Amino acid sequence: MMRTVLLCAAWLWASLLTWAQAPQWQEYQAPVKSSLRGLAPVSDLVCWASGSGGTWLKTEDGGLSWQMGTVAGLDTVDFRSIHAFDAQTAVVASAGQPAVIYRTEDGGKNWQKVHQEGEAAFFDAIQFVDAQRGFVLGDPIGGKWMILETLDGGRSWHFLANLPDAASGEAAFAASSSSLIADQEGLVFATGGSVARLHRYSFATQSWEVRELTDLLQGEPSQGVFAATSLLENGGLVLVGGDYLQPEYRIATALLVLGEVTIYTSEGPGGYRSGVAFLQEKNWVVAVGPTGSDYSRDGAHSWQPFSTTGYHAVKASPGGKVLWASGSQGRLAKLVY
Q1: DSSP characters for 90-125?
Q2: What element of type H or E holds 12?
Q3: How far apart are CA 76 and CA 84, in angstroms?
Q4: 7 class by beta-carbon count within 10 Å (0-12 exposed, 13-18 middle, 19+ buried)
Q5: Residue 50's pLDDT band (boundaries 50, 70, 90)?
Q6: Which of 131, 182, 254, 286 is the most exposed place for a label (fewest CB within 10 A)?
Q7: CA-to-CA distance for 64 and 47, rounded, in angstroms?
Q8: Strand 323-326's sheet: what is its strand order?
Q9: How much of the chain, in percent, has pLDDT values that exceed 90?
């Protein structure tokens, strides 16, 4: 009897400890009701966001207050991709038409159009390697992926010289501007639609390698990889996605890539996930989607739910100590742990 009581007490204590240590979202309500898929943390205090209705937002006090506006008066444009350098300088790219890139140097007061593509273009993600070199990923045109490069901090853009081939029906997703990763070594982007694939580009060799991601949900226009993040500790990649038309379907929605090895995470997130980020301070991986948020303490081998609030995007601030999230109806949040 005493042993049973002790075991029950130990189980209860472990459960309470796990609950107490679980992360939570500290929510902020922006002064707009836009769908916010663009997210660009600069620090623990400064974060930019962008989205539908041409909306841009910025906080400089950790989320307590938000400045906002409309990019160049374009209130019908959805700016799903944003990169910010500091509290004054940011670059946004649209999803859909017109396919445009704008830049501000005065904290959002004024925006200058720095690039525009034709009617077939659709921008999915933006990433910068450093303050000068950055990339924009766009859906395929004529069987080739669209990848734009800047070497002057986003003031001008040109096509990458070596563009990779796209499979018929293959697409990227602009759900959180997270399907592209750029670092000093090269580029990585993950796809979906007819086939889910991982594309790697080496700056050193200027060549592409492609591998199919057979363990992830794919085959339909609404399925595939929607977001990717890098695990800095071991160089691995975490890919999340699923089917946005079946947001609660949780089979084959996450994959861990370690070198040439792919590991299907059977205890995956609780459904379709559109964003994922690595919190280096805690060695956690956090995934978000319309049905809630999950986190992993073991490098994406297993996942635990911690919130039923829906978010589109999640990004880590430089230094890996703070995670920010954005979603529909002007929803913004910061992770508390």
Answers
A1: EEEEEESSS-EEEEESSTTS--EEEEE--TT--EEE
A2: helix 2-21
A3: 22
A4: exposed
A5: very high
A6: 131
A7: 11
A8: 24-29, 331-336, 323-326, 313-316
A9: 87
**Judging by DSSP bridges, how do beta strands 284-289 and 47-51 pair with one another?**
unpaired
Q: Could you report the per-residue pLDDT of 299-327, keeping only the tens digit for each? A: 999 999 999 999 999 999 998 899 999 99
The residue to which tokens 């309470």 are assigned: 16
Average pLDDT rounded to a whole number, residues 107-127: 97
pLDDT score recorded for residue 233: 67
55-64: pLDDT as tens digits = 999 999 999 9
Average pLDDT over residues 121-145: 97
Distance CA 225, CA 240 (A): 6
What are the strands of the beta sheet with 158-159, ordered from one edge? 123-128, 134-141, 144-150, 158-159
Q: What share of the chain is helix, strand, coil (3-state, %, to 5)?
A: 10, 45, 45
Strand order in the sheet with 207-212: 180-182, 186-190, 197-202, 207-212
| Residue 311 · residue 293 · CB < 8 Å | yes
Task: Render pLDDT for 157-189 as a digit per residue (tens, 0 to 9).
Answer: 999 999 999 999 999 999 999 999 999 999 999
pTM for the structure as a whole: 0.91
CB count in 10 Å sphere of residue 106: 9
Alpha-carbon distances of 224 from 148, 195, 219, 272, rounded to whole Å: 23, 7, 8, 10
Asked whether 291 and 16 are in contact (CB, 8 A), the reply is no
* Helix, strand or coil, per DSSP, at residue 328: helix
Instruction: Please compute, for residue 4, the number of CA atoms within 13 A of its CA located in the half-sphere on the CB side.
Output: 1
Q: Which fold has domain 26-336?
A: Methylamine Dehydrogenase; Chain H (2.130.10)
